[in-house]
Amino acid sequence: MPNIKSAKKRVLVTEKKAMQNKAIKSALKTQIKKFVAAVNAGDKELATSLLPETFSAIDSAVSKGILHKNNAANKKAKLSKKLNSLGA
Question: How far is CA 2 from CA 7, 9, 15, 18, in A?
Fold first, then answer.
């Protein structure tokens, strides 16, 4: 445990930010799982309606620094591909 006041504060701030990041990442994973479940069930209407919400969650995570922009682009491409394969 740190003794210096600024170091103590950094520990508290780091813990708080880690909790926020974890919550955002968890919500993102949940949203992606909902979309994938809809695709696996073959429900094209539901999957189509969930896709913009999922993309929005991914973009939000990027803007908050949770995901790298290239990682987000990769996720979005894979999800789009899943939806397109459902129609074929």
Answer: 6, 9, 14, 18
**Angle of helix 44-63 relative to helix 69-87, nearest 10 degrees?**
180
Per-residue pLDDT of the chain (88 residues; tens, 9 = 90+): 889 999 999 999 999 999 999 999 999 999 999 999 999 999 999 999 999 999 999 999 999 999 999 999 999 999 999 999 987 5
Q: What is the pTM of this model?
A: 0.87
Show the domains of the chain with their CATH numbers.
Answer: 24-87 (1.20.58.110)
